[in-house]
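Record type: monomer structure entry
Structure origin: computed from sequence
Chain ID: A
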Amino acid sequence: MRFFMVPLSFILLLAAASASAQQACYADYKASREQPLQLQYGVAEVTGECTVPAAEAELAPRLAADDWQLLEVMSTFDETGLEERRESAGEYFLRY
């Protein structure tokens, strides 16, 4: 029986590590578009590394596809920070 306990413990440890590594990541950002000048504050899900530089690299082309220029990624955060940003992001909440 002890033979099965060690592998089972190891499998559970790996599963827990994998779940935390796949935790959702979000970024809040500012973007602009010209003619006429428009400014946007939004929140987007980031699928890569959960850092500001990685979020910038991922969001810039998404926004550019709709003629928005990324000005700044303000921060990255997990799902616990979503609700407090929902109202401020308005129509740009999880749009990009």
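Annotation 1: Strands lie at 25-33, 38-46, 69-77.
Annotation 2: The first helix runs from residue 2 to 21.
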